[in-house]
Amino acid sequence: MLPVSGTVTLDGQPLPGVNIMMIREDGMSVMAKTDSTGSFSKAGTGPTDGIPEGTYKVGVNVFMEIVDGEVAGATPAPKILFDPKYMSADTSGLTITVSEGMTPVELSLTKR
User: Fold this and answer.
1) Is residue 45 part of a domain?
2) How far is residue 7's CA from residue 101's CA, in Å, rounded to a whole number?
3) What is the CATH number of the domain that holds 103?
4) DSSP code for 52
5) Are strands 39-42 and 13-14 parallel, antiparallel or unpaired?
6) Domain that residue 62 falls in
7) Of 60, 41, 45, which Cα lies nearest the Cα of 98?
8) How far is 87 from 66, CA to CA, in rounded Å?
């Protein structure tokens, strides 16, 4: 398991509060969430921390918290500020290659 960190930007500005879904060719998936500065990290010292080596397709979605089967604080649904193509790992065009000694990644999104 390897540590992975990076930032998500929208037209060069940090994009906070989004989910990043990383899907490897064999179907293995990992999710992370950006903080208030648009940064994300999957790192740690435990055996299940970090991400297995490989190349991942990446999708980005608006973060919604589910509480008792309901979307918390999402009335109305959150506005999607970026091109919807980024919501699917198959159409986003974004990839992350996880390898030993990798540097932080930057996922650059654009508006519609």
Assistant:
1) yes
2) 17
3) 2.60.40.1120
4) -
5) unpaired
6) 4-107
7) 41
8) 18
The residue whose two tokens read 């992975």 is 4
**Is the Cβ–Cβ distance between 18 and 109 less than 8 Å?**
no
If you search the block for the tokens 């398991």, which residue do you land on? 1
- The 10s digit of each residue's pLDDT in 2-60 is 999 999 999 999 999 899 999 999 999 999 999 999 999 998 666 677 899 999 999 99
* Side chain identity, residue 33: K
Minimal CA–CA distance to 99: which of 1, 31, 28? Answer: 1
Does residue 44 lie in a domain region? Answer: yes
Q: Domain count for the chain, please give it.
A: 1
Is residue 49 situated within a structural domain? yes
pTM as predicted? 0.82
Q: Report if residue 112 sits inside a domain.
A: no
